[in-house]
Amino acid sequence: MIEGGSEMYRVEDTMLRIARNAGIEDPRVFATPTCVFMSLDGGDLSQMKQIRDRNINLELVDRVNNLSRKFAAKKINLQELRQQIIQVANAPSFPMWMQVVGAAVLSATLMVLFLDDYDWIDFPGAALVGAVGFWAYCEFKKYTKIRFLSELVAAMVMGLLAIGLNYLDHEMIIDHILIGALMTLVPGLALTNALRDLFMGDLLSGIVRMFEAALSALALGGGVGLVLKFVGA
């Protein structure tokens, strides 16, 4: 669930629900965005699981949450729950072409949503820049473990493409195109989950996630700013 972008209180609630319905009398759980700690029956020994990869996959979060509720309702046993959770974790995500098309549609529609003085010629420009930038983000992320570097590179790609489109057709406005395209990578859900963690009392997770969202936004802005500074409009 953490790998899918879930809030920490939901992770802890799900783990406690599973443990209690499995006959554990006093389970204790502490979850952060990078690791999970759990002890059983109030014992002194605890187990830690490190979280190395985190994305946004709300379908995964929903399916695991539903499985825990089915287990609580005695519709499946513990072994079936384990097998189905493994299946959910290994289930393939949407194909890349579908994600790229979704990024294109999202970029174009959000440009229209956020701007009042847009021109329809910016519509395909935002779609193209958003799609290519999102593809660059996903591809670069496969080859590096450095956090926020993929956002920086994707933003630079978007900036270069927007400048190129403006060079080909001066009626295309760089600012309009970038406003729509960058929305595909803006960490809105991460910021929302950070606030929810803070409101639920998970101060450590909330602060960490908020700082992480701020760094992602800074990388996006920095990538575009570098291109506009050194390449020019």
TrEMBL record:
Please provide the record's keywords in A-Z order. Cell membrane, Membrane, Transmembrane, Transmembrane helix
Single GO MF descriptor: transmembrane transporter activity
What membrane topology term does the record carry?
Multi-pass membrane protein
Q: Where are the transmembrane segments?
A: 94-114, 120-137, 149-167, 173-195, 207-228
Gene Ontology CC: one annotated term: plasma membrane
State the compartments where it is located. Answer: Cell membrane
Record-stated family:
Belongs to the ThrE exporter (TC 2.A.79) family.
The name this protein carries in UniProt is Threonine/serine exporter-like N-terminal domain-containing protein
Source organism (scientific name):
Lactobacillus amylovorus subsp. animalium DSM 16698
